[in-house]
Amino acid sequence: MTIEIKTTSVEPIRNTYSAIARRFGDKPATRYQEASFDIEAKTNFHYRPLWDPKRTLNDPSRTAMQMDDWYAVTDPRQFFYGAYVGNRAKMQEAAESNFGFCDKRNLLTRLPEETQHQLLRLLVPLRHVELGANMNNSKIAGDAIATTVAQMHMFAAADRLGIGQYLSRIALLLDGSTGKALDESKTFWMDDELWQPMRKLVEDMLVIDDWFELTLVQNVLLDGLMYPLIYDRMDAWLGEQGAEDVSLLTEFQRDWFKESLRWTNAMTKTVVGESEGNREQLQLWVTQWEPRAYEALKPIAQATTGIDALDEIRAELSVRLKKVGLESTGVQA
Amino acid sequence: MAIKNKKLNLKDKYQYLTRDMAWEPTYQKKEDIYPDEQFEGIKITDWSQWEDPFRLTMDAYWKYQAEKEKKLYAIFDAFAQNNGHQNITDARYVNALKLFLSGVSPLEYAAFQGYARVGRQFSGAGARVACQLQAIDELRHSQTQQHAMSHYNKHFNGLHDAAHQHDRIWFLSVPKSFFDDARSAGPFEFLTAISFSFEYVLTNLLFVPFMSGAAYNGDMATVTFGFSAQSDEARHMTLGLEVIKFILEQHEDNVPIIQRWIDKWFWRGFRLLSLVGMMMDYMLPNKVMSWAEAWEVYYEQNGGALFKDLERYGIRPPKYQDVANAAKNHVSHQAWGTFYQYSQATNFHTWMPEEEEMTWLSEKYPETFDKYYRARFEHWDKEQKEGRRFYNNTLPQLCQVCQIPVIFTEKDDPSVFSHRQIKHEGERYHFCSDGCCDIFKNEPEKYIQAWLPVHQIYQGNCGGADVATVVEKYYHINLGVDNMEYHGSPDHQRWLDIKGLKPLQSNSEKKTAA
Questions:
Q1: Is A71 within the bounds of a domain?
Q2: Is residue B40 part of a domain?
Q3: ipTM value of the model?
Q4: pTM > 0.90: yes or no
């Protein structure tokens, strides 16, 4: 038996907004569609920006990539704001529980002094890399054409700030929330030889003007090497040093990177597939920047996992790039 | 470095979790990383003095915002499932939503873009983070507004192509040029314009009237959005005040620059608000308060207290504030009178107030409504009822700056249009006021670029030579369905059906009948 509540049904006069109907037909649309397509201003801009007088607002020429329609780049996760924060709220709940667990049982402070020092030298300084990633993604969100593209980068900007905060909290667990450990960790970022190629790379990325070049370098190339190296291989290495509990505090990053591969791969594939011209330019950027990302991570790999681990990851990235029609040099695959 | 063994307080902890992640660059020059921070002439001597206007780490943000979104979307679902659009006071109300979705929601999106940009531009990381949080909030608002009004779009006309229309329709160039102006400025002016003038000084006159209007007119979807956005807006207002105080405290040379921006953005905001004024006085079947009352409370009183507070920095109230204050008894009537005449070219319906509404207007505007406006409105009403609905087919002269037709009157004489003109490099430019004319004179090279809809139509850039073609083909307005006179329109007919004033026909029958 089923129960049936009688309701009056009212026929709609249309199923969705016209812009959505033009793309997908006049049928009921998803929330992702109504929130993400064609809501960004496209034409008839009034004034040229004082900060870029050669171009208009929302000018497609802020990148060398040319797309007939930037809305061809979509998010396989179908994240609009509500879906995004809902997903991250669940992830942060897990992270919070892990941090709480570590704090309550003193899992970090009971580690040997030398291991604690290694965390401050080798892991926590990545918070600065995350801040760079945060700035880069915020710039891209401001420059990108099409909401489907811009919002993915805004979400990434927020994510990177959050990840930087989780990394910072590892130091706060170590120093009992005095800030001392963060101060110490920052000196490695600023002065330790090990971090200088990375810091130089991050500062060099902060002056990249082309937003698609920047998303490629940050979200595909650097992250594509850095996340597997740090949160997979170095995580295992820390485990060998008796610091396996640290894994609890970086779980967020592992889940996050796995998820981010979905949109970064889809985006790169679509833009490469648009034209030979796009592919050629992207290839030039890969050739230029992939070795820089590798070099920046080399000292960290050498000090921890060994260089073989980084080379393996590099080969994995090369396979990933190959799938979208790009080649990375420097790997004997 | 002093040895630290004390636990961080909340303020310091938040700084460690935000600005302390930044560092002094050594491989690249600071001015290359932050190339836009200097050109406006604002002097920041010490970013560390920046007070975080709120302390919200990302984990807390995700958690709170997700809870809010969950509740909001539960209401949207319930609203759609129960055909909540049938419970509004009157279908005329939906026209306020059309104005909102095409005039305000695109600004939320533009704000997202603007804040994402300035969230990268400042060398002070504390300010960057605060701006980024506003950027993602603004994205939220633009998207939840699409969803809040999605159900209305399925049952009423005129809501169907808001973003397309925002880029094109003549009067929508008023809000669009406002935000284009802010976004094309430098980062400090953007914040003075949007965070301070718009969010802090004027938000109670823009965002809030629409949300209160929704509450008063049975629009559960929109008012729930309004409540849900309230805590976001509170953060944005706090940022607005911090921004202005910070800049003013940094260097005395900043004071005259900020004063000029406050003058400019107050006036631009005041002109933009004419659209809200007419919405409050004419488009809400159940009225919240009159525009004049709103202006008195939210500008004259609250704004007055604010500028009193800013006096110690050497800031005076905005120039032409007296003109704006005097205009509170006129602007909504003048604006509605204009939109009534040009309703064939808007994306919403217009109508003449019913007798009891006229009475309300007389009570709320004892010195102006009966004296200057009632007779004209009664005449138009009579004409419409006798089958001669008045439409004006002459395209109006637009102000070069605010882009509103030159329809407002002189402060001291409501029978004379306020019209200013100047010559600049051999061309003549027209303005609605001294306020707009001053703005032009300060930056003529910017405002000569304005995309003026009337000029563009006459130059043949809008798809056709006659109004009907422009409206239908270029604006995507379904002429006579989305707009023109409300009475007798499909929306009106449908509303009568919903209210059982006539039997509800099925859609297919209607199509056959048409």
A1: no
A2: no
A3: 0.97
A4: yes
